[in-house]
Amino acid sequence: MVGAISACTQLGDNEVAATLANHVEEGCERTLFVSNALIHMHSKCGDIEQAWREFNRMSIRDVISYSALIAALADHGKAEVAMNLFSEMQKEGIRPNQVTFVGLLNACSHVGLIEEGCQYFELMTRVFGIEPLKEHYACMVDLLGRAGQLEKAYNLIIYNIGAADAKIWGSLLGACKVHGNTKLSEIAAMHLFKIEPHDAGNYVLLANTYAEINKWDDAERVRKMMSERGMIKSPGCSWIEKLG
């Protein structure tokens, strides 16, 4: 049954999820593993209420139970509820893991809770001695970027992550566009061009950053770069349309 639930989780199909949940109701033994799988399945299918119901009916919960629900709450923008659940988890004496903190940092990032996010990062590394993964740094870059603390986000990448991936640089580039920071957007874009040389979206994002502050010569330079590399322009790229 756990295998079937896991497969449904990958599909993200609510109808299949409901069918499997009914099978469990009709007689499948509700072990900790089955309940955890159901929480994860309902969360991935977007049914946070069913995930909550499954969590609340569990007599025994572990770090997987809490982490799965915290992640689901984060995805649905329910940061305060996720943080309260983490507090409950600590009261129960359940030690958090790397997945728990990815969920918490995501929760803070989605609603701009900078101070809380930084506190969780410190708690993870200094109190629980958990080594940050790229996923944690990606959350922090996103959190700081949304808040406009771009230099801080950039320094976090340079001094802690090493070989940052496209997701991390992309997060910084997106934040630079929002806040009009062309200097750091160029740095982030150059890294992205090396990692994903044929991803037109990165070029468009950089060009849009220039266009929004009327740096049309720079936007044109990026357009030419795209043309030289044989990239197809996107119909939604207004700056390309304007530049002709």
Automatic annotation (TrEMBL):
GO terms for molecular function: RNA binding. GO terms for biological process: RNA modification. PPR repeats lie at residues 62-96, 199-233. InterPro entries: E_motif, PPR_At4g14850-like_plant, PPR_rpt, TPR-like_helical_dom_sf. Keywords: Repeat. Pfam families: E_motif, PPR, PPR_2. This is Pentacotripeptide-repeat region of PRORP domain-containing protein. The lineage of its organism: Eukaryota, Viridiplantae, Streptophyta, Embryophyta, Tracheophyta.
